[in-house]
Amino acid sequence: MFSRLTRPQALAVLAAPVVALLATAAFAPLPFSVAQPGMTADVLGENKGTQVITITGAPVRETSGQLRMTTIEATSPDTRVDLPDVIDSWFSTDRAVMPRDAVYPSGDSVEEIQQYNREQMKESQDEATRAALNYLNREDEDIEVTLELADVGGPSAGLLFSLGIVDKLDSGDLTGGRVIAGTGTIDADGTVGAVGGVPLKTQAAERDGATVFLVPKAECSDAQAELPEGLRLIPVTTLKSAVDALTALEKGTGEVPACQS
To answer: What CATH number does the domain located at 34-76+117-251 have?
Structure first.
């Protein structure tokens, strides 16, 4: 036998499972990571006492300015992220909630993820070296490049590695004494790829003194969303476009690309 509920009674009955669901969600781990601006490192100089780029087999130029690769710091894959953490991050400009699978390969252990990131970094360094030497038409020369960057994984420093190699081996000055930051993967043919986490990386760049930020063109809108005041965006698609833009900026001649609003 069924009895008809009044509206207040019905709302009360419906509210009970909703409240229970919210209470459960508030304390249940969620498949997210919380990210924030990470460290930056000048690839033209030292990081933690070790030269980032070491070149043998060819004379290198004394560089000026800085080329800073940027990172984000995310909660580790085994860190519990709850609903209050997610809500708090939504209202914070210096933190972002990202699907854990977008930050870490799904289903891997912490050790496997760390190994994967190291392999990605090594592959990125190899590609960056080939891209730079190909750009300079010096791929057939007996030039050895060693790249060292402690405690950083993944492929997103590729573009800055290549630019650092070019700046050391080429005759031109890419920075003009500026602090230039950026992000982007790179292939051996010089193609720049998107990386994710760009709004947080622009904050890290501004914090560490950068006035110019090189961003993969496909991520212009993301970079513009929360762009720190005083940081100039330059969109790039290839290593050549990045070198051309920095050369135009340094010499004050030619057009420097900009992200379109």
So the answer is: 3.30.230.10
